[in-house]
What does this fold into?
Amino acid sequence: MKWLQYSHLLILIGFLTVLGIVSGYISQRKNKTLASQPSAVMIKEVNQIAAKITVKIWSQEFLGSGIIIQQQDNRYIVITNQHVLRAAAAPYKIQTFDGKIHRATTISTPASSRYDIALLEFAADENNYQTVTLGNSSDLKVGEPVLAVGFPDQDQEANSASPKELSHNILQELAVTKGRVSVVLDQALEEGYQIGYTNEVQKGMSGGALLTIQGALVGVNGKHAYPLWEAPDFYEDQSQPCPPLQELIIRSSLAIPLEKIIDATPEVSWQYLPTATISSDDKTWSSITIDAKETNPQRLIAKMQAEAASSKRCEESAHQGKK
It folds into this structure.
């Protein structure tokens, strides 16, 4: 009898242990917050996606980065910043992740006269280039992790070399920087910039992607933090952000949100596709490390959200004072 009671007790303890583990897992799923960090596997897959959808844009020299956004048969459309193309005259070339060079043509779009975006097109016999997965920039929250992607400008000697000479290094040159959304402006600045984030964005990364940690596109990089010029930022209606918000904008890298780009480019057949993943043993992948381990991310997020909210209250007070 005692042996049976002991066996029943062990079964009960085992059942309660399993129940506790399951309950803990459910609780973790329910309490998932912006502070939740992606696994190492997820980060590696997103880095691989970033490498496949990001291109280099060339004229006589390297100009900047771009994103493959659409495929139609063997033709691909790339989006970049208008100021990237303004840096040099056509003809332009596009260099894909495999190092191959493609002749590019510009696609005329009225959006370029209002926003800092431009479209290019190239043809490829390989027909194996990946298009970006679209996210939802309107859902972004202050403190949310994001990844900024692009090719930082190299030194003068490398910058003057031909794309063919640099083709073997293209994946090693790609940067994927980690950070968090610092502000989402209620109205866009000139040229469409509206999302601020803490990621480091260097010259040459203009036209690259702003991705969620799931690898979905939510914006196009265009401005780095602490610009060399001291001219204040203006909204599209030519009003100015109030001083605290202006200071936050200066400390942030800036992107044009995806929804604004989609609305402005009806000539592109934007398609929402399931998030793509790439096998970890993909031989074309070159490892990219992402640093910046946060200590106490919950506290960091709360501080960022409080600063953004305070800046917006300043903006509201300024508008009320004008009435």
